[in-house]
Write a structure and sequence with these properties.
about 575 residues; alpha+beta; Rossmann fold; Elongation Factor Tu (Ef-tu), domain 3; eight-stranded antiparallel sheet
Length: about 575
Amino acid sequence: MGHIDSGKTTFLDRIKGTSIVDKEAGKITQHIGATEVTIETINKFSGHLVKKYNFELMIPGLLFIDTPGHNAFDNLRERGGSLADLVVLVMDINKGLQVQDIQTINILKMYKVPFIVVANKIDLVSGFNRDDKDILVCLNNQSKNVSEKLEELLYRIVGQLYDKGFAAERFDRVNDFTKQIAIIPANVSNDLGLPESILFLSVLSQKFLGKKLTIEDNDYMQGAVLEVGELKGIGSTADVIVYQGQLKVKDEICFPTRSGLKCSKIKALLKPNFMTAVDKKCAYEKIENVSAAAGIKIVAPEIADCLSGAVIVSAEDKVAIENLKNKAYACLVKGSTGAFVKADTLGSLEALHKLLDKECVAIASSDIGDFTNRDLLELKILHEKNKEQGVLFLFNVKINQEFLDEIEKLKIPIFKNNIIYKLIEDYQEWLSKLKKQEKDKLLKEIIYPCSFKVLPNFIFRSCKPAVVGVRILEGRLVVGSNLELNGNKIGEVEGIQSEGKAIDVATEESEVAVSIRDATYLKDFKEGDILKVSLTLENISNLEKLEGDLSSREQELIIQAKNEIYKKQNQ
């Protein structure tokens, strides 16, 4: 887990010797993935340290759930946290705890998941010199300035973790791993600190997890579906993390589809070779059974109908099946007004729901899969009902150019991206522009509460229009304001001048010349009179939209004006 660009995908990439990072959209892992690291690989990376620290490794390996590292995937990270026994929090040592790191820590607190910190990118510290594969030897061989800077950065993280309720220390200085978070300085892009990270994860797992590392024969199987697709020569398959119980060929499983829950028998279980590049050419071997925790590819009739991101359970587990009925379809909603949302998996859809909820965006319709003609018809209806809310969000789904052209012709805002945080950023930028346009339009139409005094000896014209000098006593005077005196209508402000120049608004205490259409000096008003702006309920409604831009006195004047209107209406 970790903030965007912290290096967490590179962490696994270096272990496997692959180039996953270059294949990901935006170089960010977009879905929860799994990587199995066998004990042989652990020994390959960390064997020299096993002897140094006098450890004995007994686990068969580690299964990494590689969760998305940016803030858009809060709920997927929660799913990853709830599945995980341990977590590697990869952060940039130069930046300390960032937004997603803090969110991750809160999730780990919630689920009480132990974690270690990999303080990555120590090579970016000016003057850093790598002269050994052992991180401690390397740290000890740095110049005084570099050593001091690294210590400063390390203890900034220690302090930040302390503020979040955790005691932490550099891994070699930890006295009690059950009470302190181990921080491992690293440069994972060239394997520095990686052997120590793998070793301490392995040791901590077997030392502190205890019975969590065992499974019971009578545990019902449960798994998380990562992806559903086609495998050449095999047919429809589902990539699954089995996180509870055992799964065997011919076992019956239950999973959610668009048409409700379905049950099917396992035809084959395919185990990928996780130590090769993860792509469609990856070799698979057939196995008869698998135990938690494992990443596995399932071949079963009608598995193609399974919703990506769903949970699959044993058909014998009646309680789990009931839970599936209640929860699996929560994000597949249909409503009358709001945004139209489509994503590639249930997990992505859940993430979008959560983010849009934070932005207070109403969702009228949400679904998974590519954009269709039926979707276009529904989107048109939503946009006609509400121009602002009826927008389209597409995450990692296909849409034909003809649909895009039609949506553009209808001037329906569309937010499409395969990096979810960028999709939300685009929406926020559009919303900000829209609000500015609305506010600018409103400001042109706004009439403020105001009163002013007609100054003696400043009657420039008596009528058609009357032009007089005034002092603004309260509020703001703008062109278009209707004036009254003692409840009687006087006329409309046609123009305002200050020092011979036309202005749009005159503020409190200013002295300006005002031209008043339809008013006549001495007939409608005289020197020394105090004229007021006559507000309508429509004026007041517009003003209330600008509440944050009004002074407390202006807000009082608005309330007074509203009360006076209601009083007249009731007379």
